[in-house]
Design brief:
The protein is α/β, with parallel strands linked by helices. It has a single domain, classed as 4-Layer Sandwich (Purple Acid Phosphatase, chain A, domain 2). The strands form 3 sheets. The protein has a 6-stranded mixed β-sheet, covered by helices on one side. The longest helix has 14 residues. The chain is globular and about 45 Å long. Bound molecules: fe (ii) ion.
Length: about 270
């Protein structure tokens, strides 16, 4: 299966941060995804679709409706759970108690795991972990799990110092299914990859503003001028590969696909 991961759009009520036009980045991402060849099976959005300046999902929902493939979205700490369910619950069968889901593709599955606790804090209670274990037991195909908060330490104290009850239990559970499970998250506004307990893990890059790499406790919480980007996960029975694709908001999609073709990637992006 081919799953495009988008994350951390942070669309604001006024449409943009001063130096990061999230709406333009999403529009470009949708254009590129719709032109991908082979087509992706789905788009997995790992949270923070909105900034806290708004609870109105109508603009982002309309933009995402232009996608030619299914949208699979879990909320982030900046999303409002009730409004999120109202916005996306008609198209995606969320669990009754939390905004988790399972989506079957032809040759694998995507599981969205809601990691939002009260106030957007990271949390996985026993009910969510039991729900996930049931999903993992019922199907032995390759499975991509998407969530917002990373349930592992990243080396960045800003994130690692925040409590995440249930994270260790989740990683122990996934270790038992490591051969066919892969985990991706968002939240840090920086992409990374890793291995924990034999489980392949990763964080997708933001469509909104990127944040400075901070490996020390007093690192600045600063926006950086890095281009918005998306991950493209190619997963089958044999392997799991991820491509990272930067999106230049000031480039029209025609110019961008032209650059990609020149780089020899026309098999992925249609000319
Ligand atoms: Fe975020």
């Amino acid at each position: 299966m081919i799953i495009v991961q988008l994350s951390d759009l942070h669309l604001r009520a006024d449409g943009r941060y001063p130096r990061h036009d999230a709406g333009a980045a999403l529009s470009l991402a949708v254009s590129v995804i719709n032109r991908m060849r082979p087509r992706s099976d789905a788009v997995l959005f790992t949270g923070d679709l909105l900034d806290r300046s708004t609870r109105d999902y109508t603009p982002v929902r309309l933009m995402l409706r232009a996608l030619s493939v299914p949208l699979l979205a879990v909320p982030g700490n900046h999303d409002d759970p009730a409004a999120f369910r109202r916005a996306f619950g008609n198209d995606l069968a969320y669990a009754p108690e939390h905004l988790s889901f399972v989506h079957a593709c032809a040759d694998g599955r995507v599981i969205g795991l809601d990691s939002n606790g009260p106030g957007g804090s990271a949390m996985l209670d026993s009910g969510r972990l039991a729900w996930l274990e049931d999903r993992l037991r019922e199907d032995d195909r390759p499975t991509l799990i998407g969530m917002h908060h990373p349930p592992f330490t990243t080396g960045m104290p800003r994130y690692d110092d925040a409590p995440f009850p249930g994270a260790d239990a989740l990683m122990r559970l996934l270790a038992a299914y490591a051969e066919r499970v892969r985990l991706v998250a968002g939240h840090t506004h920086r992409a990374l990859t890793g291995f924990i307990g034999g489980v392949q893990v990763g964080i997708g890059p933001p469509l909104g503003h990127a944040l400075a790499l901070g490996l020390v406790p007093d690192a600045p919480h600063a926006h950086t001028p890095e281009a918005p980007a998306m991950h493209i996960h190619l997963i089958d029975q044999r392997q799991s590969i991820t491509h990272s694709l930067a999106l230049a908001p000031d480039q029209p999609v025609e110019a961008m696909t032209g650059m990609l073709d020149a780089a020899g990637r026309s098999r992925l992006i249609a000319p």
